């Protein structure tokens, strides 16, 4: 009976690659605390041997489902790569004072289905745009839903001020952009994004190494990272899909659609 228990633990541990949690489960199943130490040794041995040959069952399913899941450490072969080589370009940017029609078109465009959009500001027509902040797709949808518009671009006041409750009520299932009706007159209005954007988003230079970008995503739980040049101009955007695509290749990831929330 003892050998059968150890064999079952080794088989299960080699498949799912769990150690401590599986030890507790096996101890609870047998109601015998004395089996804890040998079960732990068996599970650790099964995990070490299994990792030498192939990944665990859960990791294999993550790859089969093409989920942009990031592991704890960056791939070993990524140390020679930079953010420039994995970022998505060109980037869809919005101005601080943007027309409602432009925002609706950007959100409706399936080619720019990122969750966040850099906000830029042009000093004049001859100067390139510099990064001013970042605004989320969910925030733009709430603003459109409550019609927080400026009737004319020379006005500085919005028609209605939003409260934090308005964003909380829409979370976590924000309405799709197709369900929000915007008339032709409203498309000519202007939306001031400066009050709602994040004025200090996380950025990296183009020369930042891929392991550094990877650690920022893992440590801060980021969904997107703006890549800028030495003049703080937006040159690209790194998402979890970009990092996962590098790890897994393009196999199956082209069919992934980013979440709209």
Automatic annotation (TrEMBL):
Record-level GO cellular component terms: lysosomal membrane
**Pfam families the record matches:** CBS, Voltage_CLC
Origin: domain of life: Eukaryota
Task: List residues of the CBS domain.
Answer: 197-255
Instruction: Indicate how the chain sits in the lipid bilayer.
Output: Multi-pass membrane protein
Which keywords does this Swiss-Prot/TrEMBL entry list?
A: Antiport, ATP-binding, CBS domain, Chloride, Ion transport, Lysosome, Membrane, Nucleotide-binding, Phosphoprotein, Repeat, Transmembrane, Transmembrane helix, Transport
Q: Its Gene Ontology molecular function terms?
A: antiporter activity; ATP binding; chloride channel activity
Q: Does the keyword Transcription apply?
A: no
Q: Which Gene3D superfamilies match?
A: CBS-domain, Clc chloride channel
In which compartments does the protein localize?
Lysosome membrane; Membrane
Q: InterPro entries of this UniProt entry?
A: CBS_dom, CBS_dom_sf, Cl-channel/antiporter, Cl-channel_core, ClC
Mind telling me which PROSITE patterns this protein's record contains? Answer: CBS
Primary location group = membrane
The protein's annotated catalytic reaction(s) are: 2 chloride(in) + H(+)(out) = 2 chloride(out) + H(+)(in)
This protein's assembly is summarised as:
Chloride channel 7 are heteromers of alpha (CLCN7) and beta (OSTM1) subunits.
Q: What does this protein do?
A: Slowly voltage-gated channel mediating the exchange of chloride ions against protons. Functions as antiporter and contributes to the acidification of the lysosome lumen and may be involved in maintaining lysosomal pH. The CLC channel family contains both chloride channels and proton-coupled anion transporters that exchange chloride or another anion for protons. The presence of conserved gating glutamate residues is typical for family members that function as antiporters.
The entry's family comment says: Belongs to the chloride channel (TC 2.A.49) family. ClC-7/CLCN7 subfamily.
Entry protein name: Chloride channel protein
**Source organism of this protein record:** Homo sapiens
